[in-house]
Queue: 2 jobs
Job 1
Amino acid sequence: MKEELFKSLSPGLQDAYIQYCLPDDLSKLTINSVILSEENREKVNAFLVETEYKDKFIRYGLEPVNRILNYGASGTGKTFLTKCLAAHFGYELLSLDINSAISTGAAAHAIESIFKLGNYLGKCIIFLDECDVIARDRTDKSIPVKPETREAINGIFQLLDRMSPDCIFVAATNLYDELDPAFVRRFNVKLKFDRPVIDELDDVINKFVHPAFTINKDMEPEIKDIILEYARNYTGLSYDEIETWVERAEKQAIIRGSEIIEESEIYKFFMESLRIKVLTNEDDNSLYLYQIS
């Protein structure tokens, strides 16, 4: 199907398709694959329903809800949700590397090209990651705005006004507080992505375990409690990092010829991230933390 679609494009749009259409296989992704807060889950479910009735809304002169702003720390699911939305709707996913476009001085042209392709294709998601690169607050005089950056953000405003109602625009940022308020107002769905909560760590770990594997709860409760209590002040935890620990533990199980993951291995990787060890005091046999330099 994609091959037929590609052949139907003009040479210019073919170049844009090659550059912006993500080749990832999204077929196994679902909305339930994403770890969402209760608030975000409600917003996403409402968005799915509105999109289902979009054509009927338009007939009554109601604007479709088709602009989503994902914001929060790195590795918390902003890009992953975008991929899952594309999979859910069966849409093409067009993604622009805005940093690369800025560095070559072609940001405005790149933005125009991706919107032109999206409007031609219809039923696609146009994804702008790290949107703060061009959408910083222009009233903040401490941050100089280059002419090409100003041209790019003005172009986005115009292109959003002309975007096909069959398209969805998604932007993502780690720097929500630094965004231009005029840019933020363009979005009718805003989703804040938070870091994992330590008290929910086991649930998150289970979310990432492949169905073929089971977890052997071999961690000593006292050691586990010490690690988790220390980790409450750890600001670097992300869903990406937890998924990496689980994948590493699964690989270790496969090497052993097993489909049983040792919980202690996952926590070993966690302690590596925290740069700690749990040691035993030889005098009274009590446990204590040792910070790795």
Job 2
Amino acid sequence: MKNLLIVFLLASLPGLGQNSAAYRACNEKAKTQTEMNTCASDEAARVDAELNQVYGKLLSQAASEQDAIVKIKAAERAWIAYRDAYMDAMYPAKDKQAEYGSVYPAEANLVRAKLTQRQVTALKELLRQYSDEEQSGASAPERVKKSGVASNKPKP
């Protein structure tokens, strides 16, 4: 009962219940927990592949700015550390299968997929900035001005 409640809560949270059409179709056909776990695992793998594709494009687009490449890579490493820490906080038990039951793999993969999808969105935002720069020749500070993002620096 506890696990069913967790699944319901995860599905009802804004942003956590929105999975791909491929996942929804797979899950509708699933008849066993193992099949549902496989659907969720496939969803996590799909979103991870999308992340890797967008990350590769971003690095390629920003290749002319070595400082940017270093910072993009540092940000991605920090995001991976955040994602892993978040997953550990969400499921803190040492023996996850015993504590959370047979639904754990599905739940964990769906949370991981949702976190990854949010990162894909963030990387796409960065990619747009670097794409705009290449097209307009704008530098990083000019991109920030054009985007309307306010600086946190105090005014002199």
